[in-house]
Fold this protein.
Amino acid sequence: DGGITQSPKYLFRKEGQNVTLSCEQNLNHDAMYWYRQDPGQGLRLIYYSQIVNDFQKGDIAEGYSVSREKKESFPLTVTSAQKNPTAFYLCATTTGGYQPQHFGDGTRLSIL
Amino acid sequence: AQTVTQSQPEMSVQEAETVTLSCTYDTSESDYYLFWYKQPPSRQMILVIRQEAYKQQNATENRFSVNFQKAAKSFSLKISDSQLGDAAMYFCAYRSGYNFNKFYFGSGTKLNVKP
């Protein structure tokens, strides 16, 4: 089945710790995105990538980092510099033209 | 930059009734695409319906239809014969026809469905 897999579903971070959220896709889509969603709120763009080895900051990139070494994978690292990381994180992909974004099932990150 | 506004943070509808969710957007572009997504309590984002700006005909998907008013920059979602499973957050989204990688989302409307 084609789709987007985010893992883990739940993640806990200790103070001062970096954690990495995984996003893998087999849709052969070029563009990949990371969004943050706080309770009852909309989506805010963290980073996006159009092609391998290239990515762009979104609206709230501070405290986050990404890599795009393979077309299929776009991991997000939440660094210790992100002081309020508790949120729901969504990964999305798309192809060109008029296509919508397709979303993974998300990762819920909490602070221990 | 484009902005997408959903002015109704929360709405309620009786089961089997019809409800309309509002969305307006601000853009100077002539080519773009609009989408409605549903996010149920499971938090999965599900595409409900899409509309290309160059098409005058309003999109329809079963009980879901849109009222696309390009001049007014309005893109409302109508849900007919509402069902309990329609209860969710609904997000309006805009995709540029010039910079395909840019998507803009509204803040969402929470829809409650009363039995």
